[in-house]
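step=encode ok
step=design start
structure_in=
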């Protein structure tokens, strides 16, 4: 690939990611039969196959649109005093676009990057506390001290954590609890179990969720729908109010 093609693919990636689409890159490599027979076991954790000198094929984008009820559910959460934090493995550009689409980042609220682009100044010259919204990359999250994470959670009303690992979800839960918050966490994988257990309310997915995550959770969503959590909160508050009236 020459620099012109690299720039073209990078621009396409940024444009598609900005639309909330997930962009996948494809490449190929001819593996020698004597080293990689048909029954060879590929290991992506401890990589045992070539990862250099690959031939780039192209990009493909796909969109996994959020359910129609999610924006309304996010709005109800906000009006009920519940802070919704998005934690995803998606690229920050894609995560930010989706967060804006469902109202986790409200219209008009800017991130540090937005302010820098609007004022045409370097990001380093922007005061982070001037930004109501924040997108934190998992690579940056692992370098944050607990105090720095607390500062992010305290001074930003709308937060997205992107490119995060399931282990980092646990760190985020602990950070929210240090703020004195009652924390509910959703998860569907085996690796989400520590965060589900640590949270005050662990919410597992009934359809896509693993058995381990369901065992670690306090509540299981039978329809895997975020909006159902809001319904659960409404019912819980109604029961609590009725109990107070009867005591």
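sequence_out=
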């Amino acid at each position: 690939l020459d620099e012109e093609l690299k720039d073209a693919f990078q621009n396409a990636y940024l444009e598609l990611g900005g639309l909330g689409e997930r962009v996948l890159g494809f490449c190929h490599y001819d593996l020698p039969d004597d080293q990689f027979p048909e029954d060879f076991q590929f290991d992506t954790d401890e990589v045992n196959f070539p990862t250099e000198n690959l031939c780039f094929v192209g990009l493909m984008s796909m969109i996994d649109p959020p359910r129609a009820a999610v924006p309304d559910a996010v709005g109800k959460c906000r009006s009920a005093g519940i802070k919704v934090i998005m934690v995803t493995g998606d690229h920050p550009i894609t995560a930010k676009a989706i967060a804006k689409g469902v109202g986790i980042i409200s219209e008009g609220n800017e991130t540090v990057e937005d302010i820098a682009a609007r004022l045409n100044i370097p990001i380093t010259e922007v005061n982070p506390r001037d930004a109501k919204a924040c997108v934190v990359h998992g690579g940056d999250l692992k370098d944050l001290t607990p105090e720095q994470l607390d500062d992010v959670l305290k001074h930003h009303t709308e937060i997205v954590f992107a490119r995060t690992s399931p282990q980092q979800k646990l760190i985020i839960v602990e950070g929210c609890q240090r703020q004195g918050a009652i924390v509910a966490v959703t998860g569907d994988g085996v690796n989400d179990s520590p965060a589900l257990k640590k949270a005050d309310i662990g919410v597992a997915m009934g359809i896509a969720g693993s058995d381990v995550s369901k065992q670690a959770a306090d509540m299981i969503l039978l329809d895997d729908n975020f909006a159902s959590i809001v319904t659960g909160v409404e019912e819980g508050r109604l029961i609590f109010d009725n109990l107070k009236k009867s005591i």
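step=design ok
step=annotate ok -> Strands lie at 22-28, 55-62, 86-87, 133-137, 158-162, 184-187, 201-205, 219-221.
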